[in-house]
Design brief:
One of its GO terms (molecular function) is ADP binding. Helix content is 62%, strand content 4%. It is mostly helical.
Length: 682
């Protein structure tokens, strides 16, 4: 044979004299990697997300590995969930489990391919230098394996799919701060993490605190709030308690103080920095400006106002921020920050020019004022008394009352927050306009008593600060109206007396007529029916002088109610019928018509004409339910129950129960009276 070999041979040995046996081993088997990080301790909840990931084990695949992406903003627990799931299912991957951290883009996909190849026993000299060749080798070496590869902190999960092998028994799982819902392949399993519930945060904190640490439900909820209900910040809190022996009150102080909180969360804020660095300039600007939004969640039109951009452009920018997991989106298509991310965005906003911040907020408040004014006109009437609202022009963007009321409901918390912001800034006209427009329209339909009291008190204070007696009188009248609805006529009378004085001093007859009307309502609530009737008649005269037909008929309606209370059913019916006839001449206002008809039914009931009252009240209730105005149901329900009881007909108890539920939900003091009637029925 000499020193050469020309044939095929897997194992060739060149040697001199051989003494003894020769043993030639076959090829060494690939090692089985097991490089998963330790499973997170104290893992809580995430059962729905774990079940979604389990879909990677049950998918029908013939020629490709499973592919999953866990996305979410910094601190939501992406790595914890991925690692927990990987340990839970690792027995399904007998050829190994590999964990590679890409450090938010500091390492590339071909670096990851190199790490996995080394874990599989490929020597460095055998790993190609070119990225594509390296990834191709990885796919070749894993084609027949059942392997789990966990790529942590991947900047682009779509690109990571290049590492996906053809083995149906393998799974490639990525975590990323970029959302993959829209771009991932059809068979990708995608999970987007949000904050934990307060209950699960408290559960986690208790498991992570040193033994013997007392954690009350109240302190636990407070810690959860300051941790933003994020797993990463919870671990910081629990770790500091163990490391430094903090008490729970000390932990609360540390996480409440903004400067110290940022120091404790610096690692997580640094991760957000990396995500923001990947944004375009316009995306980064909106990211900062969005933190100025004072409400819980911002709609696209608010983002457009802040950025001084077209709404369609703002929607695209918000979609980019959502994809980057820097903002979350709720079921109303509104966008919000996690607490830690909000703090980071606020730091970016603080670096903006102060005038730029003020201009952005001015645009935001102006946009809410405009849309609120349109919604008010769609929900109430275009010609009702308004003293601080802007005169909107152009087509109303709301197609009708239902759509406008849905918008007011959806934006309620944002409207209240915008009004508080305007008050803090000293933008008095905006405070009054938001109260008198959008917030009054909402309260007029759906009774939010606490909100309304605060809104009109802010409005009255703003009008006083602006030395606008007319606006102050209007705000005090509306504040008094809410107090009347709450059964506090004495307090309401103080508001309305002051409103009358201001309106008389200003010489504004329209506001004076309104203030006298509200004073009459307060006096009626105190049982002073004769003087209340006198107020309604005086307001009636003023409205006749102003040629305000709607104002006239309102006073006839209110006078009719007062006459019912005074036992003058015949006179009441005359006044109420006149109001109904005037209403038919000027507009189609179902709500006001139904309120007049309810008072007419009360007059018939007083005259023991219960059959007529029952028929009328059934019609009223049908109309009110069709409008969806739950705040208008209680009175006709109670009156109907009274007449049914007088007629010994069934159904009274059911109507009283429904009325009681509505009154209790809104905190209406009439609930006590209805509760007593229900008890008397047995």
């Amino acid at each position: 044979m000499g020193n050469s070999n020309s044939g095929d041979g897997n194992n060739v040995v060149q040697a001199g004299t051989i003494n003894g046996d020769v043993h030639i081993a076959g090829e060494r088997a690939d090692p089985v990697p097991a490089s998963l990080a330790a499973a997170p301790s104290g893992f809580v909840n995430r059962e729905p997300e774990l079940q979604v990931l389990d879909g990677l084990l049950t998918q029908e695949r013939s020629d490709r590995a499973g592919f999953g992406v866990i996305s979410g903003s910094s601190g939501t627990g992406k790595t914890g969930l991925a690692t927990h799931w990987a340990h839970r299912v690792k027995d399904r991957f007998p050829d190994g489990q590999v964990h590679v951290d890409l450090a938010s883009g500091e390492r590339s996909l071909d670096d990851a391919a190199q790490d996995v190849l080394r874990e599989l026993g490929v020597k460095g000299a055998d790993i190609p230098e070119q990225a594509e060749a390296r990834i191709s080798l990885l796919r070749t070496r894993t084609a027949d394996k059942r392997l789990l590869i966990l790529l942590d902190d991947v900047p682009d999960p779509d690109a990571a799919e290049r590492l996906r092998s053809s083995s149906p028994g393998s799974v490639l799982l990525c975590t990323s701060f970029r959302d993959a819902s829209a771009s991932a392949g059809q068979d990708a399993v995608v999970v987007r993490l949000d904050a934990l519930s307060t209950e699960h945060v408290v559960q986690f904190l208790r498991s992570g605190f040193p033994s013997g640490t007392e954690l009350s439900p109240e302190d636990g909820a407070e810690l959860a709030r300051h941790c933003g209900c994020l797993p990463a910040t919870m671990r910081v809190a629990a770790g500091q308690l163990r490391k430094h022996g903090w008490t729970v009150p000390r932990a609360l102080r540390e996480l409440t103080d903004p400067r110290r909180r940022q120091r404790h969360l610096k690692d997580h804020l640094a991760v957000v920095d990396l995500a923001v660095e990947h944004l375009r300039t316009d995306e980064a600007e909106l990211y900062a400006l969005l933190s100025l939004f004072p409400g819980p969640a911002a709609p696209a039109f608010a983002a457009a106002a802040l950025a001084d951009a077209d709404e369609l452009d703002a929607e695209l920018l918000l979609a980019d921020l959502h994809e980057a997991c820097l903002v979350e989106r709720n079921d109303r298509e509104q966008y919000l920050f996690h607490d830690v991310v909000r703090e980071h965005a606020e730091q970016r906003a603080a670096a903006l020019d102060p005038d730029e911040r003020v201009d952005a907020l001015r645009r935001l408040v102006a946009r809410y004022r405009e849309l609120g004014a349109f919604a008010d006109r769609a929900v109430t009437t275009t010609d009702r008394l308004r003293v601080g609202d802007i005169q909107v022009t152009g087509d109303n963007p709301f197609t009708g009352k239902t759509e406008a009321l849905e918008w007011l409901e959806g934006e309620r918390l944002n409207l209240l927050a915008l009004q508080r912001l305007a008050a803090d800034k000293g933008w008095h006209r905006d405070v009054v306009a938001l109260a008198e427009g959008a917030l009054w329209a909402l309260h007029n339909q759906h009774k939010y008593f606490t909100d309304a009291l605060r809104a009109f008190r802010l409005g009255a204070d703003a009008a006083a600060a602006a030395e606008d007696a007319v606006a102050e009188a209007r705000m005090l009248s509306l504040h008094g109206q809410v107090r009347i609805e709450l059964g506090r006529p004495t307090d309401a009378l103080q508001d309305c007396e002051r409103a009358v004085q201001l309106a008389e001093r200003a010489g504004h007859r329209e506001v004076l007529a309104s203030a006298i009307e509200f004073r009459g309502k307060a006096r009626s609530g105190l049982g002073e029916h004769e003087v209340a009737l006198a107020d309604f008649r005086r307001s009636h005269e003023l409205n006749l002088e102003l040629a305000d037909t709607r104002g006239v008929l309102l006073q006839e309606y209110l006078a009719g109610r007062e006459l019912v209370a005074l036992g003058r059913a015949g006179h009441a019916l005359d006044s109420l019928r006149s109001a109904r006839e005037r209403l038919a001449l000027i507009s189609d206002e179902p709500r006001l018509a139904q309120r007049i008809d309810t008072a007419v039914a009360a007059a018939h009931r007083m005259s023991d004409e219960h059959v007529t009252a029952v028929d009328l009240l059934h019609d009223v209730l049908t109309g009110v339910r069709a409008r969806g105005a739950t705040g208008d149901l209680a009175e006709p329900l109670e009156l109907l129950a009274d007449s049914l009881t007088a007629l010994s007909r069934p159904g009274a108890a059911d109507h009283l129960r429904e009325a009681l539920q509505l009154l209790e939900q809104s905190g209406d003091p009439r609930a006590d009276r209805v509760r007593t009637k229900l008890a008397e029925l047995g």
